Write the structure tokens for this entry.
Amino acid sequence: MRELDARVLLRKEVVPDDATDLNKITNEDEKKKKEDLRELNEDAYEDLILSINGETEVGRVVLQLVRGPKTKALADGEANEVWNRLTGNFKAFLRAFQTKRKVQFAFHFRY
């Protein structure tokens, strides 16, 4: 699996949409950067989707959750939107799990 790029996942840099004609960019470095961002977005989207096990009940629910981030602007999918949906929906679960683990840990060493 490729390493996911935080620039794309956390939208530290904006991925140019499909309507943007990169051939109009005259600065070759800027053009290359925009092309790389598009490719990184596609790779990150693909990796996030493929990392979900659709054969389990939880995996099927997660796939339904992240299914929609293909937009007119980015027809191949938007990695940042998938990331936000995943982290947003599981933050509450993770907080509850971490709290439970802290309580169990404290209880274990207290008695």
